[in-house]
Amino acid sequence: MSNETDIAPLEVVSLGALHAMERAQIDAQVATAHAFPRSIEQFKKRSLAMATLDLETAESCIYCRPVGKEQNEKGQWVEKFAEGPSIRLAEIVACCYGNIRAASRLVEQTPRAVKAEGACHDLETNYAGKSDIVESTVKKTGEPYSERQAALIAKIALAKAYRDAIFRVVPRALCKPAYEAAKKIVSGEGKTIAERVKRVQKWLEQRKIEDKRALAVLGITDWSQVTEDHLMTLTGLRTAVQDGDDPVEIFPYLDGQVKPHTPAPIGFQQAQAATAPQTATASPAPVPVQQPATTTQPAQAPAPRPRGRPPGSKNKTEPEKFTPEEAAALRAQGQTVAESAIQQPEQTTPATTTPEDSAKELAAMGLAPESEAPEQPETKPEPPAPVTAEPAPAKPPFKPKAGETAELTKVRELMYAADIGEPEMLAFLLKFKISKEGQKLADLATAKLAKMVEGWPQILKNIRPS
């Protein structure tokens, strides 16, 4: 019996055959689309019904994301948002529109980014559209995400490419009624703003997002200031988080909060690092405790006196002495300094000679008569009357300006407590290239203001070294 197994030869399909199979599939789909053309009225009814099926579905149709800051009519810098239809609405549109093919795929993936391509083909009109999406796979600090997070970012890029391709083929004019109907459902007809705010607060609590972070993004300080537009923006931001966007980027941390990553140093921190080597070179080099004193003096005058025996000491076997300041510096460097090696302040021994002996010595030198001068009673000066200082007038409490971010308000409060004016602060920021010429505090980015709050003690030392 033979141990050999008969293996059937593999059939190699030529490229021409694959092309013919793909063409046959497309031709069949086009023929089906022409046989059953779509109805625009039917599409509007079905998309409206699906988009407004319930509150959760309506909320998922709205997408919103912060894209920077812009200046409003009052000259204040407020958060700017990009709002539009979401991935869920694109899925509803593709399902109700009919006779289209849509897909997305990854075309490139590097250690720092991932690129996805979406395509959509209208079989009835033979119109096709394509979109490309590039998402970064590294953090703001340059550190790459984990493999699991990178895979999640790739899925987000695929979904966004799929959405953009559908909206390139299906006219926005046909999608707008469903989008507006979903916004009306989200606006909560028949529900008060207080009820809707409670629902938003519950979601923030579930996501472990502090209320003050959400309020800072909206540019307000309390939930009592929430309006209809604010709630609509929060709905879009929530959809962005649910679709996979980073909650920290949507709702950034404020000053005083623990952040997941330590950002790179900016401005004054870089200046501090630059001045550190100069401070190190200015301090004298550490000397071992038992090292004998050198007799050679440096050529330059600013050098401190060499450590060793006190000046005037002739005993070469006498141990080395240090001043209290030098001993403290050596101990700070981890060296051991005995108490006996620290110089003690010289104490003057009171004279044992009497006034009579002094007078006789002066008379012998011809400087004073030999007769004693009458002893004058010692008069002690009267102590000055205590001066009662008038209490300084109480400083009025700090008043924040309306419409400013929490970071800017905190910086102004610290400046007010330290009696630092805005021109003085702007001059410091311009010196260390934290701000640009002509910028004000309100023009700085939120991240820079937060860093200024964190490094305020160092800023204060640089502005007022004394």
Describe the structure.
With 466 residues, the chain is mainly alpha-helical. It is 43% helix and 11% strand. A three-stranded antiparallel sheet has the order 3-4-5, covered by helices on one side. Among the domains are: 37-180, no CATH class; 192-250, no CATH class; 406-463. α2 runs parallel beside α6 (172-186), α4 crosses α5 (147-169) and α14 packs parallel to α16 (446-454).
Main attributes of the structure:
three-stranded antiparallel β-sheet; 17 helices; 5 strands; 466 residues; two-stranded antiparallel ribbon; 11% strand; mainly alpha
Brief digest:
The chain has 466 residues and is mainly alpha-helical.
Radius of gyration: 40 Å
**β content, as a range?**
5-15%
Query: Approximately how much helix is present in the residues?
Result: 40-55%
Q: How many E strands? A: 5
| Structural category | mainly alpha
Taken in chain order, the helices and strands follow as: HHHEEHEEEHHHHHHHHHHHHH
* Oligomerization: single chain
Mean pLDDT over the full residue set: 75
C-alpha end-to-end distance: 101 Å
Instruction: State the major sheet.
Output: 3 strands, antiparallel
> What is the approximate shape?
elongated
How many helices? The count is 17
